[in-house]
Known about the structure:
There is one protein chain. This protein is of the alpha+beta class. It has helices spanning 2-46, 50-60, 92-95, 131-159, 168-182, 197-239, 288-307, 313-331, 408-411, 423-432, 438-452, and strands spanning 66-73, 76-83, 89-91, 108-116, 119-128, 249-256, 263-270, 276-283, 338-345, 350-354, 360-364, 369-373, 393-396, 402-406, 461-468. The strands form three sheets. It has a five-stranded antiparallel β-sheet with strand order 3-2-1-5-4. Strands 6-15-14-11-12 form a five-stranded antiparallel β-sheet. Strand 9 and strand 10 form a beta hairpin. The longest helix has 45 residues, at 2-46. The chain is flat and about 100 Å long.
Amino acid sequence: xxxxxxSFGIGIFLYLLESTQLIDxxxxxxxxxxxxxxxxLEIPIWDIxxxxxxxxxxxxxxxxxxxxxxxxxQGQILGGKILxxxxxxxxxTEVKKQKDNLPYPVYLVKTExxxxxxxxxxxxxxxxxxxxxxxxxxxxxxxxxxxxxxxTTVVTSAILIIVNTIILKPIxxxxxxxxxxxxxxxxxxxxxxxxxxxxxxxxxxxxMTDQIKKSRIQLLEKEKLKNELEIAQKIQTMLLPAVPEHPxxxxxxVMLPAEDVGGDYYDISYDNKKNLWFAIGDVSGHGVTPGxxxxxAETSFxxxxxxxxxxxxxxxxxKVNRILHENIRGRLKKSHFMTMTFLxxxxxxxxxxxxxxxxxxxxxxxxxxxxxxxxxxxxxxxVPDIQTALEDETFHIEPEDxxxxxxxxxxxxxxxxxxxxxxxxxxxxxxxxxxxxxxxLKNTIVSQTLKWCNGRQKDDITLIVAxxxxxx
Length: 472
């Protein structure tokens, strides 16, 4: 009896302690959320940018404790979201007449004035619920009751072991299951039909083992995927060429594989006429298969420009496409495709190019501005013959002009507001730093891209920078 009283006392103390901590946590989170919202909303409210206000509210509404946010300016609603009875996030005006009929009770309302330039530009109300805290406290109660029940049962069974032999069987079953559990045998299932605490323990144990088995399977799948991505990264990096020297060009290049490996590819090689070729492209998808496709493209590109006389970029693209289509569709039975542009430098600033990829950027030293050169064609690997979709096109660069080749890992990098690092922004970085060496310019572009996405690189980043040297 003393043990039971002490156990209940400890349980009540732990419950009260946990309750206080959870309530304090909610209040702290409410303060943080309100301050963050005030800071985020200053500029949108000042500019009366309702779409941005709604976007910010949508993000904050995803937090469990938040069930409603209302933004007003002199009584006029600028934006607001609230949970309806269907647990859907809807506009405030759709539910405002049913505010007392929310899915969860309102525990706390934070009201903040939004100040900019010492002027009150709006009022914000955030409605918080303690429903989820109460659910956690219910779990705490359940655990405490379960622990006290088990303790009481064990003590009682020790005293009445002879009289209450019926208790021994479930205990032995649980003991056997736990022994199997310690040996990492999760196939044992408890079947206890006593209609008491032991039956509930058995069900909880079975649920736990089922969850562990599922978790182990997921862990193995993640480990397999991790291994595949490591292989794909090795394929990417081992194919990267050494940057060759050229009497008329200064060149540097880089490829940064993302954690979720994509299929970026670049190459810089001489053909048998001593003309320098550039290749840049991107395979759709992520993982090992894009790495294999990239390897096929690299092998085909090198073999054709090295072995064939008088081959043009258009001819090379056609031949590479035929090989990719045969392997991707015929052998791998996959649906991947590839963007690819080949460029041949024909000396004295001349380029011949073919194949579709992102726009080529050229910085003109004369105007100190960048221009965009469109690439045309069709994705590689979709159909066997693409001859009619391609043309050999040309452009010319003067001394001190800079050629920028890149992949969408740069221009599709997103910041925390889900905004893209656009080609125009890339061109601005080039214009502002054109006086740097090609290596310094390359590093600046990469650092600006990573700064824009706060280091959260979602795709491979590939970049080639080439500047024509002014001859003495």
